[in-house]
Amino acid sequence: MASMSEELAEIDGQIADIFRALSNGFQKLEKIKDSNRQSRQLEELTGKMRECKRLIKEFDREVKDLEYKNDPDTNKMLNEKKQSMVKELNSYVALKKQYASNLDNKRVDLFEGPGEGLAEDNGLLASSMTNQQLMDNGNRMMDETDQAIERSKKVVNDTVNVGTETAAALKAQTEQMSRIVNELDSIHFSIKKASQLVKEIGRQVATDRCIMALLFLIVIGVVAVIIVKLVNPHNKNIPDIPGLAPPVQSRRLLWHPI
């Protein structure tokens, strides 16, 4: 096993740990008398067998990836190693089926694909299957699982893409709302300035009107005085307006000799 890569060695170690846990678990199962506890123990062991199946698939993929790098003897050794793992796993599957049958539980096969009836193929145990059958059965199950994983990846990618598009749309809408708020603030400021300007203009107009009214009253008063002077020049109660000529009578008196 020295020629194995670090990844293969790590996977092989994990599989070996699971096999030891399965062996200890089935030994413990023999000592359990309560049917409910036996059922729970079987479920736990089934989970370990599923994990072992996944690791065997990873081991097989890694072997295929390194096949062109290794020599034929190494590839043969690795394939035999994988075949041995499948046999041992199938032996635990058969043992689990035996206990499940004793508990009158439904028969559950580890290598049963989702939605497909593979009970007949999975009923082949390690004791009755040839090495090639084991490899073909294991490879077929691995391919089906790979396809299911690829479909799941596609769904996940589609979900991620939809989430990304939604996030981008939300970001664009947020930026648009921010621009609208800024524009509203600018409009509010402009309206406030315009209101102040209108008030100032109103005050200026009112002041101009007052001044014009005062001037109009002054002009009316001057005109009234002038009219009174012209109509009744002998009225001494009317003060002379600076700049006006003296009364006509006064001028005539200046013309007579003494």
UniProtKB/TrEMBL annotation:
GO annotation, biological process: protein transport; vesicle fusion
Transmembrane spans: 211-231
Domain T-SNARE coiled-coil homology: 139-201
Location (main, coarse): membrane
GO cellular component assignments: endoplasmic reticulum membrane; ER to Golgi transport vesicle membrane; Golgi apparatus; late endosome membrane; SNARE complex
Cited InterPro entries: NPSN/SNAP25-like_N_SNARE, Sec20_C, T_SNARE_dom
UniProt keyword annotation of Cell membrane present: no
Coiled coil (UniProt feature): 42-69
Keywords linked to the UniProt accession: Coiled coil, Membrane, Protein transport, Transmembrane, Transmembrane helix, Transport
GO molecular function: SNAP receptor activity; SNARE binding
Pfam families recorded: Sec20
Localization annotation: Membrane
Keyword Repeat: no
SMART domains assigned: t_SNARE
Membrane topology (UniProt): Single-pass type IV membrane protein
Recorded superkingdom: Eukaryota
Family to which the UniProt record says this protein belongs: Belongs to the novel plant SNARE family.
Designated name of the protein: t-SNARE coiled-coil homology domain-containing protein
Organism from which the protein derives: Rhododendron simsii
